[in-house]
Design brief:
heterodimer, A: 517 residues, Rossmann fold, four-stranded mixed sheet, 22 helices, 15 strands, B: 156 residues, alpha/beta, Pyruvate-ferredoxin Oxidoreductase, domain 3, five-stranded mixed sheet, 35% helix
């Protein structure tokens, strides 16, 4: 099974009461699979909400799992950092699925830094078996130390399929769920937060000691005088590239077991750190005064693979062959977004955009989306431009954002649009295809269906827009009247008003999916 | 470690690349091998290029096939051959639609299983494991058609 499926299976077997998250490659299938096999799971409007709901469940002594992609943890960083202070009464495992190489992301940040920054213990599985085992053990760790645990995965761990043996008997779930009042422990006003930080440091010191002999780290004796310190997927490449080397595979990478590392490094003439992404292990180990070898900066970019690890081991830093480009993804035949981009291109608009299928509008033949920063920034970057550009240019600025992204973090942008209204107003187009299409057709509050595609309360984008005080709210049916869109955009651009245009038509793929269900 | 069989299956989103690699992995697994399989999800639904790596041996570590080390490259779309042939090792075997008689496959949708059939004659996975994998992973109504396509590809 895939690493994602393994985390879901482990969550069910570990008796998780609630799974929350927001879709994002490569994390999406965890929660989907958890729901499919009978777990209680829900898509949240965004990762911050998902984590807070998960923390609430874990305050009530439940086990909860919260899933997101690496950039999602930025959105959830606020509760993430302080949940380390409050700790939890139940078990809380937070999954960050990182995307080194950016197969489907806007950056390749290495979230191991966030575990260290927030002082939250971190586990890094190296295959699906460990994804299963570490999830189960992660809950035990979380409950024992009353602290959230970060399960840090990467694309190749999430999506590779490897064999998994389930080692525990499925739990029947927890019955002793209750909230225990603890004002000093749970209310993080400064006078409570200061001692809470001290308690957190003590927990981390205990965890570091625990990690010296923990189940998570494995030493493999070698036949040659080279030792490799590694973690996650890098272990697999290292093991294959240099099968005769001694290996210290770190499964719990915050807090690090420095005595174990020191004793391992001391045994070898050459000790090298093989890690994907930033030199997180290398820097931490060197800072602890243990001499090890790292990798050239070029290998900090992109994914590792067997070939690159061989180069690192050989001390090479030669420039790398660039593989030929494949066929780029494109908007599907019949996609309702196409007409919108054709119009925007024709009208010569400046288009701050956002994250989703419609990001493909930046590619030929449209080349009609001018910026992509992060979730929700389509609206707000547009506002910044409207504020400073000369009037004639400002009036050509149109923000585009998808329906799921709008719910995720577009609403506050709309509030800013009416509160700090640019002199020329602004025009926002919401490309509403009634699903979270890019990640594989997940539901969201605006689609009005839950994670299993059953009916739920629908949050109506036009109602939100009107309630916020947007002056013009137009809904264009892109199936019946696609030609309307150009006229409406032209009209709204000529007025100095705040306008939201909802270009609505269900995603062609979601229509196919619904027919199947 | 040299006994690891490295296979890359390539094509365009929607052609059944991932399904083909699932069938191959399942067949290798039930035949007693350690198997790892890796691909990138995400944007493939939008008609982009898709590749899926399958590796099997007594024991496999890396889930990905390094460029230039594939023993077999199975390509479902002819226009994807050029961009993927760097994955093949020297002397590796390229398998494309030209290796089978397209007029004989029961349905264009069975191209993936037909090419697996062509691949199967080069690798030592017993026929019964292939058939079981197809029956397990494809919808019941299409299994007979796919087994027919597989056998047709195998005979070529």
């Amino acid at each position: 099974m895939s690493g994602n499926e393994a985390v879901a299976e482990a969550s069910l077997d570990a008796g998780v009461s609630l799974g929350t998250g927001y879709p994002g490659t490569p994390s999406t299938e965890i929660l989907e699979h958890f729901a499919e096999i009978g777990g209680k799971a829900q898509w949240s409007p965004n990762e911050k909400v998902a984590l807070e709901v998960g923390v609430g469940a874990a305050y009530g002594k439940a086990r909860a799992i919260v899933t997101m992609k690496h950039v999602g943890l930025n959105v959830a960083a606020d509760p993430f950092f302080t949940a380390a202070y409050t700790g939890v009464d139940g078990g809380l495992v937070i999954v960050s699925a990182d995307d080194p190489g950016m197969s489907s992301s806007q950056n390749e940040q290495d979230n191991r830094h966030l575990a260290e920054a927030a002082e939250i213990p971190m586990l890094e599985p190296s295959d699906s078996q460990e994804a299963y085992d570490f999830t189960v053990k992660g809950f035990e760790l979380s409950e024992k130390w009353k602290i959230p645990v970060l399960l840090r995965m990467t694309t190749r761990i999430c999506h590779s399929k490897t064999i998994v043996e389930k080692k525990i008997r499925p739990s029947k779930g927890y019955s002793n769920l209750k909230f225990v009042k603890d004002l000093r422990g749970k209310v993080m006003i400064p006078s409570n937060a200061r001692p809470a930080h001290l308690r957190l440091r003590e927990k981390i010191a205990e965890l570091a000691e625990f990690n010296e002999e923990s189940f998570f780290n494995k030493v493999e004796k070698g036949l040659i005088d080279t030792g490799i310190i590694t973690s996650g997927i890098s272990y697999q490449y290292a093991k294959e590239a240099e099968p005769d080397a001694g290996i210290l595979k770190l499964g719990m990478t915050y807090p690090l077991p420095f005595d174990k590392i020191r004793s391992f490094a001391g045994k070898y003439k050459r000790c090298i750190v093989i890690e994907e992404g930033d030199p997180y292990l290398f820097k931490s180990i060197m800072a602890a005064g243990i001499e090890v070898e790292g990798k050239h900066d070029i290998f900090r970019l992109g994914e590792l693979n067997l070939k690159r690890v061989r180069k690192i081991l050989a001390g090479e830093n030669t420039s790398e062959e660039i593989p030929p480009c494949g066929k780029a993804p494109q908007l599907c035949p019949g996609c309702p977004h196409k007409t919108v981009y054709e119009a925007l291109k024709k009208l010569g608009c400046t288009v701050p955009g956002d994250i989703g299928c419609y990001s493909l509008g930046t590619l030929p033949p449209y080349e009609a989306m001018d910026t992509l920063l992060c979730m929700g920034a389509g609206i707000t970057v547009g506002l910044g431009l409207r504020h400073i550009l000369p009037e004639e240019k400002a009036m050509k600025v149109v923000s585009v954002i998808g329906d799921s992204t709008f719910i995720h973090s577009g609403i506050t942008g709309l509030v800013d649009m009416v509160y700090n209204r640019p002199p020329t107003g602004h025009v926002v187009i919401i490309l509403d295809n009634n699903t979270t299409a890019m990640t594989g057709l997940q539901e969201h509050p605006g689609s009005g269906r839950d994670i299993m595609h059953n009916p739920s309360h629908q949050v109506k984008i036009e109602d939100i827009s009107r309630a916020i005080g947007i002056e013009n709210v137009d809904v264009v049916d892109m199936l019946k009247n696609p030609e309307e869109i150009e006229k409406i955009i032209t009209k709204r651009l000529s007025e100095k008003k705040t306008s939201v245009i909802i270009a609505r038509r269900p995603c062609v793929l979601s229509v196919k999916l619904k027919a199947k269900i | 470690m040299n006994d690891t069989i490295n296979i890359v299956i390539a094509g365009i989103g929607g052609q059944g690349v991932i399904k083909a690699s699932d069938i191959l992995s399942e067949a290798a697994f039930t035949a007693g091998y350690d198997v790892k399989k890796s691909e990138i999800h995400g944007m493939s639904q939008r008609g982009g290029s898709v590749t899926s790596d399958v590796r099997f041996a007594k024991k496999v570590f890396s889930p990905t096939v390094p460029p230039g080390e594939a023993d077999f490259l199975v390509v479902l779309a002819d226009d994807q051959v050029e961009i993927n042939c760097h994955l093949l090792k020297k002397g590796g075997k390229l398998i494309t639609s030209k290796d089978i008689d397209l007029s004989k496959i029961p349905n264009p949708k069975t191209l993936n299983t037909a090419l697996l059939g062509a691949l199967s004659s080069f690798i030592g996975i017993p026929l019964k494991n292939w058939e079981e994998a197809i029956r397990k992973l494809l919808p019941p109504k299409s299994t007979d058609m796919n087994i027919e396509a597989f056998n047709m590809g195998r005979k070529q």
